[in-house]
Specification:
Elements (H helix, E strand, L loop, with lengths): L4 E7 L20 E6 L2 E5 L5 H15 L4 E5 L23 E7 L6 H8 L15 E7 L3 E5 L7 E4 L13 E8 L7 E8 L2 E6 L10 H6 L5 E5 L4 H4 L14 H11 L4 E4 L7 H14 L3 E3 L5 E3 L3
Parallel strand pairs: 3-4, 4-5, 5-6, 11-12, 12-13, 13-14
Antiparallel strand pairs: 1-2, 1-15, 2-3, 7-8, 7-9, 9-10, 10-11
Bound molecules: zinc ion (2 copies).
Length: 307
């Protein structure tokens, strides 16, 4: 169990969930990606994909005796990234331990933002009802999270200070980078590294001319880059209803970053709700002609980062 580094997609859709026959192959749930690194479970975002992810965690807990503990990293608090949280079953198990981290907003703490986003009657429950949640904490860009072997509780350290004791051997390290290319407060990108391998999560971001240079630096050499690719180039440049400035990328923008950063694999992510399986698989085929490591993220897809 200790040597696993697996990325598993539970929700890959942007904006709102789209169940139905036209999306059955790619999936209709909003963002949630599970990263299993050693004994630790990290969940990236709490869209509706976190609902089946939570059921799987409960099953593994019951059947295999795995600890019911996870670190939830929020890219930002737009509704499609937290709308599954009230239905995340482990949150109601008193013996479970959940640690929630997210971006520091300009004017308030993530705990405040989350509290305001989950207010009855607009939301069925409040943050306080999630009994397993131990910590809700904003991360600064100068901080990193360390997950040490044999310890569930994450250690947060300033990156310029010494790493915590015990981190030399088999620790998971999470770094953050703030992107300003998304409306309102921007988003956090995450880089999760374990035993010399790394995955980078970069959703809800709009490309720049020449590629997002800060992201290219951040993602350098990663084994997998998960990147926003919500719009086709035609939609992005539509003369009447252009999507410029909406805070999302095209597959071409994602490819440019992946190639400049020298990543091994690229997963297009945050698919537009209007894009059906046929269109997405066509996007994948076109991308693979230029970059064989490109795939369209779909529910149930797994990457073993040690292979
Ligand atoms: Zn989104
Ligand atoms: Zn967003």
């Amino acid at each position: 169990m200790g040597e696993r580094f697996v990325v598993r997609f539970w929700g890959v859709r942007g904006s709102y969930p789209v169940p139905g026959p036209a999306t059955v192959r790619v999936g209709g749930n909003t963002p949630c990606v599970e990263v299993e690194a050693g004994e630790h479970i990290i969940l990236l975002d709490g869209g509706t994909g976190i609902i089946p992810a939570g059921q799987a965690l409960l099953r593994r807990h019951r059947d295999q005796g795995r600890p019911l503990s996870a670190v939830i990293l929020l890219s930002h608090t737009h509704h499609d990234h937290i709308q599954g949280m009230p239905y995340f079953a482990p949150a109601y198990v008193p013996t479970a331990t959940l640690y929630v981290f997210g971006p520091r907003a300009v004017r308030e703490q993530i705990s405040e933002t989350l509290r305001r986003a989950m207010v009855p009657p607009n939301f069925p429950i409040s943050v306080e009802d999630l009994r397993a949640v131990r910590v809700v904490r904003a991360l600064a860009e100068t901080e990193a999270i360390w997950l040490l072997p044999g310890r569930q509780e994450p250690q947060v350290r300033n990156v310029f200070r010494d790493p915590p004791a015990g981190s030399e051997d088999g620790a998971v390290r999470v770094d953050v980078l703030k992107s300003y290319a998304h409306p309102q407060e921007g988003v956090y990108f995450y880089r999760i590294a374990y035993r010399g391998r790394a995955v980078v999560y970069a959703t809800d971001t709009e490309g720049y001319q020449g590629g997002d240079r800060r992201l290219i630096h951040f993602a350098r050499g990663a084994d997998l880059l998960i990147h926003d690719a919500q719009y086709t180039a035609e939609e992005y440049l539509d003369p009447v209803a252009s999507k410029q400035g909406w805070g999302h990328s095209t597959p071409e923008m994602a490819l440019e970053v992946a190639q400049a950063a020298g990543v091994r694999r690229l997963a297009f992510f945050h698919h537009d709700p209007a894009h059906d399986d046929a269109l997405l698989l066509d996007i994948e085929a076109q991308a693979q002609a230029k970059f064989p490591g490109a795939v369209v993220a779909r529910e149930g897809l797994e990457f073993d980062l040690f292979t």
